[in-house]
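Lab channel / #folding
Pinned by the channel admin:
"Please post every new chain as: sequence first, then the structure tokens as a reply. Keep commentary short and put observations after the output so the thread stays searchable."

First post following the new format, from NK:
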Amino acid sequence: METVTLNLKEQKKLKVVTEIEAGRMTTQEGAEMLALSERQTYRLKKAYREKGAVGLAHGNRGQASGRATPEEIKREIVRLVKERYRDYNNQHVKEKLEEEHGIEVSISTVRRIRLEAGIASPRKRRAPKHRQRRERYPVEGMLMQTDASIHDWLEGRGPRLALIVYIDDATNEVSGAVFREEEDTAGYMLALQQVAGRKGLPLALYSDRRNVFQNPKQPTIEQQLAGKQPTSQFKRLLDELGIRLIQAYTPQAKGRVERLFGTLQDRLVKELREANACTVEDANRVLQKFLPGFNTRFTKQAAQPGSAFRDWPADLRPCDVFCFKFTRTVANDNTISFSGHSLPIPPGPHRRSCARARVEVRQLLDGRLAVHYQGQQLVTFQPAEDVPLRVGKFTPAPLPVPSHPVREVILARATRSEPVPRQPYKPPPDHPWRRSYKQSRSYVKK
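Reply from TO:
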């Protein structure tokens, strides 16, 4: 005897049909109670008379759905998840299946298949904390959020790196990002230079309160008299570009960039793994290929059309602002001291000597050192080695020895293979050595 378990809806149908068959309810009243047509109610009565309560169960019960995922596709998904995507979250697995394997399934299907195979998603969902949400800025370019994440991006294949990013508050677009060996001012400058080259200059920048963005030193007496506060090199850069700096007191205040790092530590790490990146140079190459697709998937539409980015000034070179600036006084021998090295300075545009002049020393992001005086570049020094930039630290390449006649004669004599016999000097007849004492005295009196 076949046993069928009816659900609540089918049990309601059974109750109404039995009442109709017992004559305690008309077919029209039963149709109204079941929210069905009279024609459909007659069908239920016929099925009940022929098969009993079993006839009220749905006809597709026990049969596979026509839209069900085929078993071979399920087995392939389980194999790929176990071999390649075990630590990928469900959404990321869905995207990889579509992009690289041509398998189009929903995220709920991926979740169900993983649970059936006993492979849980690595992403743990936490209950959201209740905070007052700040509305996004309405137009792109009005506010950029920036921060750095020090993480094992290379998963032990290389050193721990710091990823510095700039994300637009209105659209979530990552316009600038760079890997550095440490979180430093040069990295923030390089990433901001990418933003300026791709989009333009934003109106404001939202950051934390690290020393990169503010100078912790106390103002000097000269600064106090002038009513100025000491600024960091990066703050000086923002002031020259007309970008307002807003500093947050808590990480939650700049949650846009904080949540971005959670996504990147999940997705970008996998891309670096697949590319077998082992150095900071490899990581930056993978990063620049990764960002366009990432922005396409996660960029949002701004609340208002248009852009608040400002165009780069036509009369301003990027190397004139994206650098570290120091002030030095030229010594009497036309040299300046920088990082323990004495560097020669040529004469200025309208001076025969730059001694005692105040010059501006610019340490460029590519490692070079440029000396400027009254808006004119006097000399550029190349670094001795291609090493990462360290602010205030510089080792110049060997400088060429200037030509000098006396030095050349001395070097020629020192390198000559055969010694030249020295000719004795013979004074002329009128030489003072040949005069007598009286002749010399008379010569002096004249």
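NK: The mean pLDDT is 84.
TO: also worth noting, The first helix runs from residue 8 to 21.
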